[in-house]
Amino acid sequence: MKGNGMHKYRITKYDPRYRNRDGIYTKQDWTSVSDTECGALTIEKYIDTEDRYIRTFNNITSVVGISCLIVSSLEKMLSCHEVEERDKRYGLTKYYSADIELFNEVKEGIRLNIGKASDLIRLILREYIWCELSTGNDEKFTFGYDHYMYFYSDKEYSDVLMQCTCDGIFIEELTVMRNG
Fold first, then answer.
1. For 67, which DSSP code?
2. Which branch of life, at top level (predicted)?
3. 145 lies in a domain?
4. With left for phi above 0 and alpha for psi between -120 and 50, is residue 40 left, alpha or beta?
5. Residue 76, φ and ψ in degrees, nearest 5
6. Contact present, 25 and 16 (Cβ < 8 Å)
7. Residue 170 to residue 102: CA distance in whole angstroms
8. Which run of H or E residues covers position 71?
9. Are 54 and 118 contacting, i.e. CB atoms less than 8 angstroms apart?
10. 154 near 5, Cβ under 8 Å?
11. Is 159 exposed, middle or buried (0-12, 13-18, 19+ CB in 10 A)?
C-alpha cells in the first residue's frame, strides 16, 4: 500500500531490548570482521552472522518483490590485492572468499540481480566496499558502521518485514519521514 512518506527500517544483529531510549545499543559486542584478530570473535561466529544478514536481505527482497538493485554512492576502500590479503588474514578463505571479480567489476550505476547484490553485501559487511543499493524507484538499502543495514521504502512493510528476519537479526521500524 502507498504510504505517506518514507519508511525506514533498521536491520542489525543488535537486540532492541538492549537499546537505551536514544536508540543506542548498550551491550558490549563485536562490530567488525577485524575483531577476529584480537580474539573477540571467532571466524565461525562471524560467518554465521554474515550469512544471517544475507538471508534476511534475501527474504526482504523476496517479499517486497525486488529482483534487481542499482549501485550508487560507490566507495572502494581497498585495492583488489588488499581484499584478498585481508580475507586470508581473517581466515575467510575457507568459507566465502571475497568475490574479487565482482569487486573489480562493480561500478556506479550498475544493475545487479539479487544474487550478485548479496555477494556485494558481503563485501560491504567486511568493510571492503561501501555503496547504496536501490530499485531506482521507491526502495533502497543503505549501510552504516558496525553492521547496520537500513531499508527505506515509500510503502509501509512493518508486518511483512518482521517475518523476514533470521534468528539473531532484528528489524526495527524507525521514524517515518513524511513528505511535504
1. -
2. Bacteria
3. yes
4. alpha
5. -105, 115
6. no
7. 28
8. strand 68-76
9. yes
10. yes
11. exposed
* Residues 12/170, Cβ–Cβ less than 8 Å: yes
Q: How far apart, in whole angstroms, are the C-alpha atoms of residue 31 and residue 176?
A: 27
> What is the value of pTM for the model shown?
0.91
Which string of b and e fits 161-178 if b means at least 16 CB within 10 Å?
A: beebbbeebbbbeeeeee
Structural domains of the chain, count: 1
Q: Specify if 26 maps to a domain.
A: no
Pairwise CA distance, residues 31 & 35, whole Å: 7
Residue with cell 545487479: 112
- What is the distance between the alpha carbons of residues 38 and 22, in angstroms, rounded to a whole number? 30
Q: Which of 65, 162, 84, 74 is nearest to 126 (CA)?
A: 84
Q: Would you say residue 134 has pLDDT above 70?
A: yes
* Structural domain of 92: 2-20+31-178
